[in-house]
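Q: Fold this one first, please.
A: Sequence and structure below.
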Amino acid sequence: MPEIEDHLDHGLSVLFIGFNPSLRSGETGHHYANPRNNFWRILEESGLTDRRYAPTEDGDLLKLGFGFTNIVARPTRGVEDIAREEYREGRTILRGKLAEYLPKVACYVGKGVYTEFTGRKQANWGFQPESAVDGVIDFVAPSSSGLVRMPMRDIVAIYKELRFYLEDELDD
């Protein structure tokens, strides 16, 4: 199955980083395309977007300052199908993307994404005290997978922290 194209640009407000695309995303060529994934709903309900975008509109979010990438570009059924070597290679590639594009915020969509990338053993939700890449602020958000057991209102509240930060940045 082909890799999903990143949506990257210089000057992004947020680069959303996932583990890797789902099989459905691989079939469609769009990020967060699994109908059980709540990503687009979370963006709308948190106020990061003014409406619910469809996965087919993922490239349009570049105009809003939002980009997309993954630690591993290969679509799989689940993260358990990713080999350790793919993670090693993916970390190097992702570090290069962050250093080149320097988004204001790297939003790791899931604690596991953040800990896999940084090698840190644990993380709290929200902004992190240290950046993995100089010049980029790290933000850890819950996974948008439909398998997550956290109540949606709690997930949305964490993503709202990111929205409030971005709004404050615009006010400055």
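Q: Good. Now the second chain.
A: Here it is, same layout.
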Amino acid sequence: MYKKLLKRLLDILIGLVALPFIILLILILSPFIYLEDRGPVFYNAERRGLNGKVFKMYKFRSMYVNAPDIRNDDSSTYNGDTDFRVTKIGRFLRKTSLDEVPQFLNVLKGDMSLIGPRPNLTTKSLESFNKIEWKRISVRPGITGYNQAYFRNSIPQKEKYINDCYYVDHISFWLDIKIIFQTVNTVLLAKNINTNSIKKKGIEIGNHNDRK
């Protein structure tokens, strides 16, 4: 009952309550983001959602325009304290997770949920997905989730996927409540923001604007 209906109803309710604050935040942050390098305020990333459906995920832009795409050996995005791609306002947005706030609009549209696995990139075809990857997209992706609440960027991609499957198998109202409170705690204490170690071998550099 919760997974099929109540979770979506709560997403809509929370999204509507948050909407005035989101609009206010957009009005406040937009000039700072634009004035630093005269680039766009938002980064609209193509992601895979429920059952692999592609949608545009909204974020405040935290990187310079045309910043290279740098990845760890496990294909996860590199996040470092001295990442040259991140703007000054972008560092603040990432530290506080405010760059993710526009995704409440995705929640209202039905692309995402407040809580769930982070959405997949679209670089991999659905035909090549394994069982774990299919399980992850059997629910709506979330603004935050089990990994973001407890580990953020401190664990490898493979471990994140295993945790996502645990969440999918154990979705409940109380688990979602625990994740929300733990997310607040993690953000306030600025825990596990960056992956500071990266091997030279296996880094992929492309011409993408901003990925996280």
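Q: Anything worth noting on the second one?
A: Residues 2-206 form one domain.
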